Write a sequence for this structure.
């Protein structure tokens, strides 16, 4: 397993937790790799050098790649008209372009893997847009369309693709927004445990599913949008 993030201390803690079956030991802020059974790449996924390091680490330490999980993501809150172009570009860089380019780089080595699969972490907001999150929604809609487009191309190479559209998940995501222009007009939703999402992903891989929505309220929103789109539009206009 190759773990990738910008914060070394968190990566080291996670690596040791995995290695020791749940027991966390403190990481080494100097960058020394503590858990040798896992590969660690510290860097920004939007940087080509980081993506190259991921591929090389997987090839050199483990001989290849069977699974790519594209989980990096960021967002911002606020109306589109009052936001800036850099905000839009940063969100698209993290949520879409970095995902696409890492996958592109991984395809040749994935094609040689054992039952290889790409898992793209999308969002219910990639199936239904909402106000105050226009850039995030745009990036996830792009991810959905791209995933559907490349799935048959990957299938020719023996590579599967799973699209995961979770709703609000109990992580640090909202603590690290690029920008927050006031509070959203709807109350903060209680996130579901990330462990539940992870288990749903594992089951979906085992069952060969194409797309899942591991969030009950998210499923309700998507069904309502499919059956009563004008009603959902009017609801969104109240918040706009």
């Amino acid at each position: 397993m190759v773990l990738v993030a910008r914060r070394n201390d968190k990566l080291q803690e996670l690596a040791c937790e995995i290695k020791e079956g749940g027991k966390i030991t403190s990481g080494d802020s100097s960058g020394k790799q503590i858990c040798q059974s896992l590969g660690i790449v510290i860097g920004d996924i939007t940087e080509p050098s980081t993506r190259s390091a991921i591929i090389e680490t997987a090839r050199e330490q483990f001989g290849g790649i069977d699974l790519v999980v594209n989980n990096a993501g960021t967002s911002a809150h606020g109306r589109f008209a009052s936001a800036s172009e850099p905000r839009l570009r940063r969100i698209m860089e993290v949520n879409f372009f970095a995902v696409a380019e890492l996958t592109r780089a991984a395809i040749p080595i994935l094609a040689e893997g054992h039952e290889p699969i790409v898992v793209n972490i999308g969002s219910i907001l990639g199936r239904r847009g909402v106000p105050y999150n226009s850039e995030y929604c745009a990036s996830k809609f792009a991810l959905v369309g791209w995933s559907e487009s490349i799935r048959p191309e990957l299938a020719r190479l023996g590579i599967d693709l799973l699209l995961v559209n979770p709703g609000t998940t109990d992580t640090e995501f909202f603590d690290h927004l690029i920008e927050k222009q006031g509070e959203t007009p709807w109350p903060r939703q209680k996130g579901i445990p990330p462990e539940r999402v992870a288990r749903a992903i594992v089951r979906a891989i085992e069952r060969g599913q194409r797309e899942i929505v591991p969030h009950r309220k998210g499923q309700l929103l998507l069904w309502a949008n499919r059956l009563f789109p004008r009603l959902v539009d009017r609801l969104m206009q109240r918040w706009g």
User: Anything to note?
Assistant: The domain at 66-239 is CATH 3.40.50.720 (Rossmann fold).
